[in-house]
């Protein structure tokens, strides 16, 4: 039954996505694109973009989006519930334990050792999405296949976000306006 499959897939994502939504992206990609082929890689990239533009955590937005695409509203409910259930249980338990043992050196050591792994998961998701955006799904990374407009928009967004600390929402709006304007001017 598809509802159970959606619930189980997103339960696993919710259970193992330490570090938040961005760290969950490789897990979501593996389940949704690779294992079940519910989405293609370009659709997954669109999913990430849509999840960024809507309020709420990216993993929950992704679960809702995939659930609706695969099985309508009941599918969205199954996937979303599967995604949030582990967090609700784990956060409740960890909050109790953390409040009791927060000054323990071993706990601090465990938390410190998880940080590099979380950064690696976020970087992995970002690189996969960047490759799809600049070279297309399944394409080789060749200079001749590079979408230079999107590369320029990417670099411009990095500069606006890092150097000028521009609001991410305005950066996304500006990126969309630049791409749309270029498309209208060139007819592409």
Structure, explained:
By secondary structure, this protein is mostly helical. It has 2 domains: 2-140, no CATH class; 147-188. The chain is 81% helix and 0% strand. It has helices at residues 2-16, 21-35, 41-53, 58-101, 105-135, 148-162, 168-186. The longest helix has 44 residues, at 58-101. It starts with a helix and ends with a helix. The model has no long low-confidence stretch (mean pLDDT 90).
Helix content: over 70%
Nearest-angstrom radius of gyration? Answer: 19 Å
Largest sheet report: none
Poorly predicted tracts of residues: none
Fraction of residues in β-strands? under 5%
Instruction: Give the H and E element order.
Output: HHHHHHH
Would you summarize the structure shown here?
The protein is an all-alpha fold and 188 residues long.
Please describe the structure with a list of short key phrases separated by commas or semicolons.
7 helices, single chain, 188 residues, mainly alpha
Question: How would the blueprint of this fold be written?
Answer:
Elements (H helix, E strand, L loop, with lengths): L1 H15 L4 H15 L5 H13 L4 H44 L3 H31 L12 H15 L5 H19 L2
Helix pairs in contact: 1-2, 1-4, 2-4, 2-5, 3-4, 6-7
């Amino acid at each position: 039954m598809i509802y159970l499959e959606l619930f189980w897939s997103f339960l696993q994502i919710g259970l193992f996505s330490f570090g938040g939504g961005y760290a969950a992206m490789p897990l979501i990609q593996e389940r949704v694109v690779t294992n079940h082929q519910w989405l293609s890689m370009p659709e997954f990239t669109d999913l990430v973009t849509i999840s960024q533009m809507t309020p709420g955590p990216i993993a929950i937005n992704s679960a809702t989006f995939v659930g609706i695409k695969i099985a309508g509203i009941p599918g969205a409910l199954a996937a979303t519930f599967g995604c949030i259930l582990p967090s609700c249980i784990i956060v409740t338990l960890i909050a109790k334990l953390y409040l009791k043992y927060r000054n323990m050196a071993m706990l601090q050591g465990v938390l410190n050792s998880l940080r590099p792994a979380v950064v690696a998961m976020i970087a992995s998701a970002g690189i996969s999405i960047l490759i799809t955006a600049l070279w297309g799904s399944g394409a080789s990374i060749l200079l001749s296949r590079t979408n230079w407009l999107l590369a320029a928009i990417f670099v411009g967004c990095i500069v606006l976000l890092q150097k000028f600390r521009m609001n991410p929402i305005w950066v996304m709006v500006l990126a969309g306006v630049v791409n749309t304007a270029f498309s209208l001017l060139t007819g592409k």
